[in-house]
Amino acid sequence: MRLDVVTIFPEYLEPLNVSLVGKARARGQLNVHVHDLREWTYDRHNTVDDTPYGGGPGMVMKTDPWGDALDSVLADGYDTGSHGPALVVPTPSGRPFTQELAVELSERPWLVFAPARYEGIDRRVVDEYATRMPVYEVSIGDYVLAGGEAAVLVVTEAVARLLPGVLGNAESHRDDSFAPGAMANLLEGPVYTKPPEWRGRDIPDVLLSGHHGRIARWRRDEALKRTAANRPDLIERCDSAAFDKKDREMLSILGWQPAPDGRFWRRPEAVEE
Ligand SMILES: C[S@@+](CC[C@H](N)C(=O)[O-])C[C@H]1O[C@@H](n2cnc3c(N)ncnc32)[C@H](O)[C@@H]1O
């Protein structure tokens, strides 16, 4: 997979050299290119922003540097044999970045990231490239960062670990929280490693039992508990077919019951507890 990032802070992308993404680069599984947007400015001050039409606070990133940079980056990629680019534009007004979207992006051969600063990029840039390739405007959460570089790191890491051969253990991401289809989209429960006792704290006995069925059931119950506590919306969205008899028993203990439409809802008194 080829990744291009155009930014006014190339140094912000240094983490792409370490850990999982860095190793994937070193092994040739990821071909990463970071570009300084200011290379495509032609005035003395390397200006990339200007005041917004219609007034208001803040500055807006100009069309020309972005257009010239993206044209050049795309031409270079095509010249070196890349194909099928998709533009990824981090923005708090984009669609939520989810594991499902990470899977979708991991199936593309070439991602070009356009992280903005200030109040974002002149809209005409996105509209222009949307006529040439898929454009993903993505938000990494309901908060506002100063720039899109951190979002690029988030998306890149989530995507890279899904690429074939990048994770040491291919099974590792199957049970992840949010893994599509896995555990009915429940959050993953707690995990433990050696030693078995630390500062007077033991690990749950079942994990030492060697009984795979009981361990799987315990993990599932913990996932249900954690999801009910932290992300009840995930349980509300699940089709009841996702839950077996034991799941239903645990959900009932946690204060959930099936509604006529098959979904589960939490009894109000259980929420207050
Ligand atoms: C200060 S923000 C601009 C916020 C803009 N005024 C708005 O409310 O949509 C500058 C840049 O940071 C990035 N950014 C900020 N929050 C983000 C988020 N939650 N997800 C993805 N990118 C974000 C985007 O690239 C954005 O254009």
Entry summary:
With 273 residues, the chain is an alpha/beta fold. It has helices spanning 19-26, 63-79, 99-106, 123-130, 149-160, 212-230, 232-237, 245-253, 268-272; strands at 2-7, 31-36, 49-50, 60-61, 85-96, 110-113, 135-139, 197-198, 201-202, 256-258, 264-266.
Written description of the protein model:
The chain has 273 residues and is of the alpha/beta class. Helices cover 34% and strands 17% of the residues. It has nine helices and eleven strands. It has helices at 19-26, 63-79, 99-106, 123-130, 149-160, 212-230, 232-237, 245-253, 268-272; strands at 2-7, 31-36, 49-50, 60-61, 85-96, 110-113, 135-139, 197-198, 201-202, 256-258, 264-266. The strands form four sheets. It has a five-stranded parallel β-sheet. A two-stranded antiparallel ribbon has the order 3-4. A two-stranded antiparallel ribbon has the order 8-9. Helix 3 (99-106) crosses helix 5 and helix 6 (212-230) crosses helix 8. Bound molecules: S-adenosylmethionine. S-adenosylmethionine binds next to strand 5.
Spatial shape: elongated
**Average of per-residue pLDDT values:** 94
What sequence of helices (H) and strands (E) makes up the elements?
EHEEEHEHEHEHEEHHHEEH
DSSP summary: helix tally:
9
Structural class by sheet pairing and helices: alpha/beta
- Radius of gyration equals 23 Å
Which strand order does the major sheet show?
A: 2-1-6-5-7
Q: What are the distinct ligands in this entry?
A: S-adenosylmethionine
| Strand content bin | 15-25%
* Weakly predicted, low-confidence segments: none
Number of strands: 11
Largest sheet: 5 strands, parallel
Helix content: 25-40%
Separation of the first and last Cα atoms: 49 Å
EC number: 2.1.1.228
Binding site for S-adenosyl-L-methionine: 140-145
Subcellular location: Cytoplasm
Protein name: tRNA (guanine-N(1)-)-methyltransferase
